[in-house]
């Protein structure tokens, strides 16, 4: 019997998967503003904040609070650890869909 790959529970929640997926589309050092990410994902500020905190606690995203002129700004980016975790997650999902293991796919 083939081994069923584990899915990262931090990423697997639907809202966090959407966040990580959106951030993975950015270049490695690019950041997106919180309001723009909120708009793209059509999430409330509170809901997005909760999921970003969980991802930040896991080291998958970096949230930077700064100012643009006199206006406060919150910038978000996917960390290298987050990119690697997302790559592992997508490989595990592919393996599940193909009926094999993640290790067999690489």
From TrEMBL:
Gene3D superfamilies: Winged helix-like DNA-binding domain superfamily/Winged helix DNA-binding domain. InterPro entries: ArsR-like_HTH, WH-like_DNA-bd_sf, WH_DNA-bd_dom, WH_DNA-bd_sf. Residues 21-96 form the Winged helix DNA-binding domain. This is MarR family transcriptional regulator. It comes from Spirilliplanes yamanashiensis.
